Amino acid sequence: MQYWLLKSEPAAYSIDDLARDGRTPWDGVRNYQARNFMRDEMKVGDVIFFYHSNIKEPGIVGEGAVCSTPYPDETAFDAQDPHYDPKSSRESPRWYLVDICFKKKYACGLSLAQIRSVNNLCDMRVAQKGSRLSVTPVSKEHALVIRATVT
DNA sequence: GCCAACGTTGGC
DNA sequence: GCCAACGTTGGC
Questions:
Q1: pLDDT tens for residues A23-37?
Q2: CA A56 to CA A96: how far, in whole Å?
Q3: Burial level of A2, CB count in 10 A (0-12/13-18/19+)?
Q4: Looking at the domain that runs over A3-150, which CATH code has it been given?
Q5: What are phi and psi of A19, to 5 degrees?
Q6: How far, in Å, is the CA of A122 from the C1' of nucleotide B10?
Q7: pLDDT-derived band of residue A103, with 50, 70 and 90 as boundaries?
Q8: Residue A7: closest CA among A112, A106, A135
Q9: Distance CA A142, CA A21 (A)
Q10: A56-93 burial code (b ≥16 CB/10 A, e <16)
Q11: Which of A47, A50, A79, A133 is the most exposed place for a label (fewest CB within 10 A)?
Q12: Is the CB of A134 under 7 A from strand C?
C-alpha cells in the first residue's frame, strides 16, 4: 500500500467538501506527472493525505483513500468546463483520475511550517521550495511521522 | 497582492 | 530540439 499527498485549494474543494460528499472524482488535474501517479501507480486502498494550499496556513488537514481504479477525466471533454482540453478525446483520453473517499478530518493537523520544522518531515516534497506538484508520493516513514503527530 | 518557481507552448 | 514567452501555482 502506498501513501500520497493531494493538494487542494479549500476555496475550490476542501476537506469539509470531501467529508460532505464522502467520495469524489479527483478531476481537473492537468499535469503529466500528477496524472501518471494517478493513472499508473495509485491503487484502491492507498492512503491520501489531504493538503490545503493557497491559504494563510497551508498544511495537511485530513485523510482520504483511493477508492477507484483510474479512468478518463470527463471534464476534459466538456467545452464548458474550466478544465476543458480539446486535445483530449474519448477515443484517446489524455487525462486520467481516480475517485477518493473521505476518511477523517484531523482535529489538529500539520501546517507547512510545522512540517518544515520537524526533522523527519522537512524533506517531504511538499516542503521544498517551489514545489508545485499537486499529487506526490509520501514515503511510509513520512506517513508514520505524520500520523504520530496529528490528532 | 506580490512574485519566484515551474510547466507548457509554439516559433524558429 | 532549443528556448523565449506565457500562464499558473502557491507561499508569503
A1: 999 999 999 999 999
A2: 31
A3: middle
A4: 3.10.590.10
A5: -65, -40
A6: 38
A7: very high
A8: A135
A9: 28
A10: eebbbbbbbbbbeebebbbbbbeeeeeeebeebeeeeb
A11: A79
A12: yes
Which residues from the 88-117 window of protein chain A have CB within 7 angstroms of nucleic acid chain C?
Answer: 112-113
| Torsion angle of C-alpha atoms A59, A150, A67, A43, degrees rounded to 10 | 90
Q: How confident is the model at residue A67 (pLDDT cuts 50, 70, 90)?
A: very high
Q: What is the mean pLDDT of chain A?
A: 96
Parse chain A into domains and list their residue ranges: 3-150
Spatial contact of A57 and A111, defined as CB atoms under 8 Å apart: yes
Distance CA A99, CA A23 (A): 7
Residue A72: per-residue pLDDT: 97
Supply A86's cell numbers. Answer: 480539446
